[in-house]
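Section: Multi-chain targets

For targets with more than one molecule, the full set of components is provided together so that the structure can be written out for the assembly as a whole rather than chain by chain. Components appear in the order listed by the source. The example entry contains two components.
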Amino acid sequence: MKLYNISINNLKRRKGKMIFLVLGLLIGIAVIVTMLSITESMTLDIEERLDRFGANIVMVPKSENLALTYGGVNVGGISYEVKEFDEADLARIREIKDNRNLGAVAPKIMGAVEVSGRKVLLMGVDLEMELPLKTWWHLQGRSPENDSEVILGSEAARALGLDVGDSLNMNGRDFMVSAHLEPTGGPEDSIIIGDLHRVQNILGKEGRISMVEIAAFCRDCPIDEMVLQIAGQFPDAKVTALKQAVMSKMQSIELVKTFSYGIAALVIFIGSLLVFVSMMGSVNERTREIGIFRAIGFRRGHVMQIILLEAIVVGFIGGVGGFVSGTGLARIILPLVIPDSSSSGINMSMGAVAVALAVALSLLASIWPAHKGSRLDPSEALRAL
Amino acid sequence: MAAVNHEVEHLIEIRNIGKDYQSGDEMVPAIRQMDFAIDDGEFVTIMGHSGSGKSTLLSVLGGLNHPSRGKVFIDSLDLYDLSSEQRADFRSEYIGIIFQSFQLITYLTVLENVILPMAITGLKRKEKEQMAMDVLLKVGLASKADRLPDQLSGGEQERVAIARAIVNQPPILLADEPTGNLDSETASEVMELLTRLNREEGLTIIMVTHNPEISVYSNRTIRVQDGTCLEH
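Its structure, encoded as tokens over all components, is:
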């Protein structure tokens, strides 16, 4: 028999007390694990959505001209001397060092066309790339099924008097309106959107690209670095990071994180208080026993060891139990918070941290009770007999 | 260990000790003045009424209770010149204690209770178990090694307490009212066991009691009253 046998036997005997202590820690750790798991998944989910489906880098040809627009009012008339990219060069975007952080690359061609005697901006896009990027686009009608179908911005549809299913003629070619965009308040309200290659063709700009929107997965990705890398590949391009978008989404994630950490700290505090009070009570109850230990030759350190070993056992069981139930709880709650989220696997490092935290908490909260127990005067303790 | 005094001739020497307790604003003497010696192999009874200071004397002898004045020498060693931790080591090696009302650890089996004083020694598990079984055999409880204390009779629990006190083979055994909770038949069985340990193993026994009937088992009686020794 060693000192740990005494600790374990004591815990076994005082089952009620041990279950209470373990449960206290278990619930605390479970709450923390659940919250952190959900926050983690939410972070991933938000980032994934925003990053995969929202462009955060824009690449346009460099121009010596200054923009002649302010607040949405364009006083420059028709742009002149428009520079463009060669579509074949776009593959170079994927050759940058941090290319694994790249999501969608959505090229566009733009040009003015005349429809029913009015000038309209026509934009050719790769619909498969574009539609997932523009999560704020809501179609009334259906997506174009072939390159002779187009989508009309709400303002354009109104001005041209075209409904879904109507035909229109652009530069001598016939197209059909397959959908309207619901008003977005953005520039797409007043344009016509068609297939990239078809639009290149009718604008007479085969193989040309006006601008490229790029989505980067931004979980700690070096967005500034990526902008530089892309700019390095395209010396004639002006590459800009939409920092504001990145910053604001990071801020909202940070807010959720701060909230979770706050709750976690509170739970940790209550948990340690619980352990402290129980351990203190346990030491007081065991005055006589500690007196016996001291009388038969146990040193103070031995008494402390017995109490701290109990704390380690309780902490370990509470930590493992808390991690398992927290992970389970997160799996139940997660689909309610984030529909169609893919449940992440068991996060072993979080498990290790949870167990270490529970043991550390339990130990920390037991140091004073253990110290007090070890300082008991054996003759005083035995006088209580 | 410090404080060896070579002028000490006896195994145990109590030199002018006194012990006061704080009671409110007053200091109340539990031991006024005591002075005596005990030799190796003696079986001494310390007898007195309750409140006479006999239990305090026993705790002072056991290194558990620092006297307010005077010195306690055991095997030439000034007991209270040692640090509290050194005294713990000293108790572990030199002194076995039998407490009033057994004081067994209720969540440990009989065998584990007996092994308890060896839990802090470097002995191997097998050795500890063997030593504990040997002692249990000696007190006639080998067959109940796996029981819990509350599954035993009072006499059996007392014998477990004795086994626990002697398992480390200390030269000195202190016993505080060892028969206090036992009927007279069981009490005499326990006393015979103690006498046998004294005679056969040369164990020095100091026993505190208020019962004159059991003092007959010892070689010598020290009577205490109001914190002083009347005869020794």
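The CA atoms of residues 89 and 234 of chain A lie 9 Å apart.
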